[in-house]
User: What shape does this take?
Amino acid sequence: MRTVKVNTSTEYDILIGKGLLSQVGKEVARRVTCCKAAIITDNKVDTLFSATVAHSLTQAGFSICKFAFPQGEGSKHIGTLGDILEFLAQEEMTRQDIIIALGGGVVGDMAGFAAAVYQRGINFVQIPTTFLAAVDSSVGGKTAIDLKAGKNMAGAFYQPKLVVCDTNAMLSLPKGTFADGIAETLKYGIIGNEALFEKVESLEFIQDLEETIEICVSMKRDIVMRDEFDNGERQLLNLGHTLGHSIEKLSQFSVSHGHAVSIGLCLIANAAEEKGIAEMGIGERIRKALVKNGLPTKTEYSIQDIAQGTLMDKKRRGGTISFVFPEKIGKCRIQKVPVEEVEQLVAEAMKSR
Assistant: This one.
């Protein structure tokens, strides 16, 4: 088992290894006094992993209750959040109890946000069951729900008490779902680790998934510790996300987050080349790496629609939106783009589609 220590406003460990779902109870008990644990999950993950986690927690001395909501981004709204909060109240959960977020990014975001606001804050544990959630969303304390206006528009910064990544759960994922996490892994390589990019580019990363997750979460840990509340450097982690989120919402979330980020990575690399920000050939290298890993690089949505979708992005500050542009593999820059120039940026990004 690998351990990555995070020292933010809340100190916590990220545990990475095989078969850790059956050890959750023991690891949680090392960090909190035994209490009531509310497992928050979705209906698909519930059938796969809840029994194992519940048994482990019970064996360690915790009492258990469980709430499962319908799988998918379509559940990530204020109605589901309200249902979770009402469930916690009905179960008489107190601030001395704990929430267990068991699932992918949607579950982690929903359960984390509920933990942040229920009784003004209750401990929670992230147990990511997807590769994407393990390398990215389960770490760093961003929790959120979607609004009609856009993705992740309401939320809170709220760090977990512990993150437990069982790689066995991730290796059992459908190919497309696993590929969502590959897009985020490539993102980390482009941001600041060319060796990681090369491993994903050559498919070598699958041979040691524990090491790959450790590299990604360690990179995110370091950035978050320097900029926990997303006022500067942490925005680098949004590489490919501004355009990706727009595509994701335009599809009414039929395009998954990782697949939308994949398209966003390709588009923003193209734009960086067109603007003379990136070294020549970076767009094609990124495109080939994505395609090799079974990820999309194109979209049929119009330039105008994609540009319009970015205007509700959280990174908008008045009349500008912060975009992350790659300069080369392993180095990116954050640059403010006036909103009136966003459509031109998208047009540049889609020239070679």
